[in-house]
Structure formats: structure tokens, C-alpha cells
Amino acid sequence: MQDKRDLSEAEKKRLARDERTRRNRRGRTNPSAVPARLTRTSAFSPRRFGLVDRSTERIFHVPGHSVVVVKGGELGSQHRDMIYALFRLRNKIASFRMRNPDAPLNGTTDGIPSHIDVVESVVTWRDLLRTMGKTEHVNNLLTAKNVMEDLRQIIMTIYDGDPDEVMRRLQSGRLPPGKGQITGVIDLVEWDGANLDSKVRVRWGKAVMAAFRSRHLVSLNAEVQFALKSDYAKSFWPFIDSNPTHAYVDETMLASLVARDVFGGSETNAQRSQFRKDCRQAFEDMVRAGGLLKYRQEEIGSGRLKMRRYHYKHALPRADEKPQLELQLMPGVGSEIAAIALGT
């Protein structure tokens, strides 16, 4: 066995991530190994209808976690479920190198590589419907196809670096420093028939490929995700389940996860009241679905600065669980609480 002292920093970090993932399995049955950027995001709206027009462009910011610019529309709960279902079918995912179809056969051209790296999921329509808990009927195939079509049309600009600094730069009209990429969640979808057992090939975008290469994956309890009825719960659960040492979350963070500026002055008292009702229903749904054992609310602050903090306990605790305080402290009223689309 190689001495850990001989490992590079990158290898040590990879081993540490693998160890955290193993500790966080919590005795789950067939969890979904999802790129972290796809769990701590508000790019997926907590609703299924009336999504933003495809001609629009939005910045999604989750303080302390990510900033992503999404162009081509807004995704909803059904799109998130489709992505998580594909990642849950991890034995159907393959990574390989193939000849670039855009490269000439008699050599290479400047800027066009002869080969490209590919990450693909090859499943059946039945696999997808069964994994998402949908009725295995041909009438549901068209819905699944339409969801994939939406995912294929979304284009994202993802920025590395400190998310809050990136947000400040974007708001001032400047290009943030450091690396970035423009990518899609899905690059290609092909199917060979409209029967339940017809093969479906999904080729993932560059951001997903990078997550697989770097092992930036988190273990998500997909049984709970697909059992949730509340769209708000579907937005909150991936963030809660992918942060295993956290014991509570402030409602300011919950607002960020559903792309709401609830406490920035742009929403009415009635809207804030409805938001809090939706949050309570979401936590009750997470308890009902078996994700959380229990939860309670705590009021912090006073007057206009009074906020809710949701304390919770996982239904499947880690064997070595020692809950730590949430590092993301409650920002003051008027601070940046936008939405995110994909980020760690």
C-alpha cells in the first residue's frame, strides 16, 4: 500500500472526499451519487408549471456555495428528479474516449481535437420510470422525453472561486477572475424506440464530466427525494442531505435555495407568511418521506430582523455523527439572497 506521505495534495483531498462519502451513506439503500453542484443549487424552481420563458437569462446565487448563470429557461422539480434518477442508475454510467465526429478523418485541424472524452448513461424508459416511482406505462414516455428536451436546451455559465465575490463582480458588470465554463447539463439524448424497454442514451455535459473525474460527488438519499410531494421539499432535501454535519438551516438559506428574495424588501408580509407556511410543509414532508426523524423551529433576532431557524435530525444518522453548527450564518436583512443554479 502506498504511504500517504507520498501522495500529492490532490490525491489526499480525493481520499478525504471518498471517506466522507462512505461515512455519509447512512445505511441508505441504493443512494444516488450526484455531483455536488447539482445538490446545492436553486436552478430548479420549486414548481412544475409556469416556468420562466426560454428567452430569459438569470443569475442563481446561493451564498457561500455557488453562482451560475442560466440561459434558456428555468428548470423545475421534474427536471431535478430526472437528473437524480439517471445518477441513481450509476451502473448504467460509462466514461470513455471516442473519436471526435467533427474532426477530419485524415488528420487534425487547429483547435479541433481528434478524440473527445465522454460520460454517458445508457438506460431504458422503464429504468427511468421505475426509478422515479412513476407508472411504467407508455403514456409516460412522452413526458420523460419532454423533460430531457428541456434539459438539453439549458445553457449554464459556471464560475469557480468564492461565490459571493463572483456575485459582486457580476452585479458590477465585471467578469469574475479565475476559471469558468459555458456548458449544458446534457449534450445529447438518443433513443431507439417508444417501447418501455427501448434504449435511451444520455450524453452528459462538460460540468458533469469534470465532477466525475474529480470525484466531486455526494451521496444522496434518492428514496426520500422521489417520495417527496412538496416541490419546496424537493428543493431543500438535496442541500440538507448533502451537508451531513449540519444540524440546522436558517430560512435565509432556504429562501436562496428556491430563488426567493424573501427578506430583501421586494416581497410583502403576505408573501413572507406564505413562504414560511411552505417551509413548514416541506419539513413535514421530509419527515413523512423518512428523510428526517424530526424538526423544530427557533425564532432568532427581534423586530424586523426576526428569523426562523430549522433544527432537524436525520432519520438515518451516521454511526460517528457529531452534529456541528451550520457555518453559513444568517445574513442581515437586505443582503444578497438570490438563487443558484449549480454550485459547491
Keywords:
single chain; 344 residues; alpha+beta; Arc Repressor Mutant, subunit A; 2 domains; four-stranded antiparallel β-sheet; 24% strand; disordered C terminus
Can you describe this structure?
The protein is of the alpha+beta class and 344 residues long. It has two domains: 29-99 and 113-219, no CATH class; 228-317, Arc Repressor Mutant, subunit A, CATH 1.10.10. 32% of the residues lie in helices and 24% in strands. It has ten helices and 15 strands. It has helices at 9-23, 77-88, 125-131, 141-153, 163-171, 206-214, 222-227, 231-241, 251-257, 269-288; strands at residues 32-35, 44-45, 57-62, 66-71, 75-76, 93-99, 115-124, 155-159, 180-184, 186-191, 199-204, 217-220, 248-250, 292-300, 307-314. The strands form five sheets. Strands 3-4-8-9 form a four-stranded antiparallel sheet. It has a four-stranded antiparallel sheet with strand order 6-7-11-10. β14 and β15 (307-314) form a beta hairpin. It is globular and about 70 Å long.
